[in-house]
Amino acid sequence: MATFCVLVSPLPYAVKKRLFRFLSESPVVAKIAYGLKISFIFVGILFIDAVQRMLRVTAETEQAKTGGQGMQDIRTETNYAARKFYAQRNTYLTGFCLFLSLVLTRTFYIILDLIHTQEEYAKLKSQNAISSADQNKEIADLKKRLASAEAKERDFETLKKQSKQQAAEYDRLATELNKANGSVSDKKKD
C-alpha cells in the first residue's frame, strides 16, 4: 500500500520521471520484480488453498450444527467460529494481496505511459516551436520578396505608361513636323 501511495502521489514531473525511469530500467529493480512475480504465484496458490479451507470449514460448521449430535459444548462452537474466522481472514488477506499486485502493476504501467506521452508532447511542442520560428522567418522573407515584386511591377507599369506617353508625344510631334514640312508619311498609326 505504501508503494501504491508513492506511485500515485503528486510528485513534481522531473522527480516522477527520474523515479519511473529508474524503476523501469534498473537491472536490480528488474530482479526484485521477478522475485515478486514468483512470490505472487505462491500467494495465488495460498489464495486457492485459503478458499478451499474456508469452504471446508464452513461445510464442517454447517454439518456440526445440523448433524445428529449438534453443538452441545460452547468450546466446540467457539472452536468452529475461530477456525472459520481464520480461514476467512486468510482468504481476504491473500485475495487482497493478489488484487493489490494487479493494481500496482497496472498503475505503474499507466503512469509510465503517461510519462512517455508527456515526453513526446514536449518533444513535439519544441519541434513545433522551432518549426514555427522557421515558418515565421520564411513568411517574412516571402513578404519581402512579394513587396519587391510588387514594387518592380509598379515600376514596370510606370515605365509602360511613360513609354506610351512618349510614343504618343513623338507621334504628335512627328505629325506636326510633317505638316510643317509639307510631307505626309504613308505609315499607319497604331
UniProtKB/TrEMBL annotation:
Domain Bap31/Bap29 cytoplasmic coiled-coil positions: 137-190
Subcellular location: Endoplasmic reticulum membrane
Transmembrane segments: 32-51, 92-112
Residue runs in coiled coils: 132-180
Domain BAP29/BAP31 transmembrane: 1-123
Protein name as catalogued: Endoplasmic reticulum transmembrane protein
Cellular component annotations (GO), alphabetically ordered: endoplasmic reticulum membrane
Keywords: Coiled coil, Endoplasmic reticulum, ER-Golgi transport, Membrane, Protein transport, Transmembrane, Transmembrane helix, Transport
Record family assignment: Belongs to the BCAP29/BCAP31 family.
Keyword Ubl conjugation attached: no
